[in-house]
Description:
Blueprint: E1 5-13, H1 21-39, E2 43-50, H2 55-64, H3 68-85, E3 92-95, H4 99-114, E4 118-128, E5 133-135, E6 153-162, H5 164-177, E7 182-183, H6 185-196, E8 203-204, E9 206-207, E10 223-224, H7 226-230, H8 233-236, H9 248-251, E11 256-260, H10 264-278, E12 286-289, E13 292-294, H11 309-316, H12 318-328, E14 335-337, H13 339-369, H14 381-402, H15 406-427, H16 429-432, H17 439-460, H18 465-474, H19 515-521, H20 525-544, H21 549-552, E15 557-567, E16 575-580, E17 587-591, H22 599-602, E18 606-610, E19 616-618, E20 621-623, E21 626-627, E22 629-632, E23 635-638, E24 650-651
Parallel strand pairs: 1-2, 1-11, 2-3, 7-12, 11-12, 13-14
Antiparallel strand pairs: 4-5, 4-6, 6-8, 9-10, 15-16, 15-18, 15-24, 16-17, 18-21, 19-20, 22-23
Helix pairs in contact: 2-3, 5-10, 6-10, 11-12, 12-15, 13-15, 13-17, 14-15, 14-17, 15-17, 17-18
Bound molecules: 5'-O-[(L-methionyl)-sulphamoyl]adenosine (MSP).
The site of 5'-O-[(L-methionyl)-sulphamoyl]adenosine has 19 residues, from β1, α1 and β11.
Amino acid sequence: MTKKPFYITTPIYYPSGDLHIGHTYTTVAADAMKRFKTLTGYDAYMLTGTDEHGQKIQKKAEEAGVTPQEFVDGQIDKIKKLWKLMNIDYDQFIRTTDEEHVKTIQRIFEKLYEQGDIYKGKYEGHYCTPCESFWTDSQLVDGCCPDCGRPVQDASEEAYFFKMSKYADRLMKYIEEHPDFIQPESRKNEMVKNFLEPGLQDLCVSRTSFDWGVPVTFDKKHVVYVWMDALPNYISALGYLNDKENLMDKYWPADVHLVGKDIIRFHTIYWPIFLMALGLELPKHVYGHGWILIKGGKMGKSFGNVVDPVELADTYGVDALRYHVLSDMKKGADGNYSEDMLVNKINVNLANDLGNLLSRTAAMTAKYFDGVIPDAREEEPVDEELISLAEKTPGMMEADMDNFDPAQALEDLFTLVSRANKYIDETQPWVLGKDEMKRARLASVLYNLTETLRYIAVLIEPFMPETGGKMAQELLLTPEERTWESLKHFGGYQAGKKIERHAPLFPRIEKKPSEEAKEEKKPAKKEKKQAKKEEKKKEEGKKDEKITIEEFSKPELVVGRIVKSERHPNADRLLVNQVDIGEESPRQIVSGISQWYTPEELTGKSVVVCVNLKPAKLRGVVSDGMLLAAEEGDTVSLLEADKKLSPGSKIR
Ligand code: MSP
């Protein structure tokens, strides 16, 4: 059966300096979409590359004292290395200096000139070099570029023009008839209101004041305007009007051009009009994502806040970085980057939620079944919720990805991770393990957990390829167990394999939060005082209330031993404790006691633990239980238990 094609593109990057994590977002998102489509059975093709002509690059080369060609040649390796590091599985890397691309641009220009869409005239206006955009007087904002706010240069030169106005009505109609062409909707409205409705002016499509560009064949002192050179890369890569292999029939029209919001205008106004003039179909979707911001502001060299993806990937791992940028950019909105947020996500979502799920399951399988995933099935109603969520998750994620929303897809996947962790708490395998009669049930619980982990391994791979691979390795998944089809019905995991325990998927990161983050997180003094007052009032009221013995037995109290304690990554007041309560692995319990205890003092203490408190996230870290303490004046002391009592001993 021939697979359905899916063609996805990223913008082609200016090779004018180092790429930052903002640039990395588009490419990682496109890669995740390509991989997801491949998983679901498409013949997915991804294009990326570099946009190498134009005044900006020529200036950079002059500054560096080399020719523009030498300058761009010197940048390419770095960019390709970055994509390799980020695990980008592109199918073609196009450069606008490629001979075949240049051919396409020259032929397009000739064709449009011959059919009368391009004519010669004189350009009088302004040019913004950083944006490579022309502006008229009335479009300037306070005399500066309306896109980036930087000063513009006066430009007056003989030039060729493209008759944009001829196609404006057709484009407007197309946008109306294809409501999902420009996404998200807010960007569509912006384009229609700000550009189409006021009326399009003819576009200047050649320059004579510099020469680093594709020469116009019939008028050599002109080079083609850089956007008219760059946009057709999406078709020159497929062999349009050049001598490359013809992939147009297979992949055109593109399924989606993924671009940042700053260049959506070029992709939804200029590009469709060029395509109409060439008699080609328009791309099915143009998706304009937001920006990754730093402290709410734009990132860039000129702002001095560039975040280097290579450094981050080296420090925290590629998948953690991929996860951070993908999960942060909610549909249609801007994202935010901070190192504290990244560390927090690694510790909470990756190390704690996902990593622990795998390691707890593997540890219990090792302990109770010598590492061999058991086959016995003894279903109980509590399994139903986990199984049905696992079966639903692939479809939900597919819909999210078709909606260009990798952040939502990851959220749906991590809901399954949380559900599986909750299933461990509900089924309490360590209790089942104590009872020989419950072995079949214990086997079923561990099978269900392993099968859920298989779903997670398969579904996480497009977003975090290394993690998916590591999980598959640990669970000994066969190629058949890693297919989309195998996720149709819960139960595809072949029991009987002996799995080995591996190193943690994501080790927790010990990192002091920045001073600034600390300040932000400190509750105001006034709020604290008020909360204390209210608590005191409540406590006083309670003294007179009597409770029944049934009510008293509601909290389940046991003896626990603190095996490890560390400071919370994001809150000064909190300590994150690992407490042995006689279960398979220690419970993580967060307590607000750092004012009175150091982590070293706590380690080894026998304490009183309430174990049936609903788990909660405290400043992003899951707390599953509570340590009991007494308060006297301004001091808080933990209730300690006799050291002779073993962890897990019930307190009545
Ligand atoms: N060369 C043009 C694209 C031509 S496509 C036919 C260009 N290049 S760029 O290198 O400046 O930007 C490439 C992409 O990176 C754009 O989609 C841009 O929106 C994106 N980003 C640049 N900074 C960004 C963030 N801070 N956050 C997210 N994306 C950002 O434009």
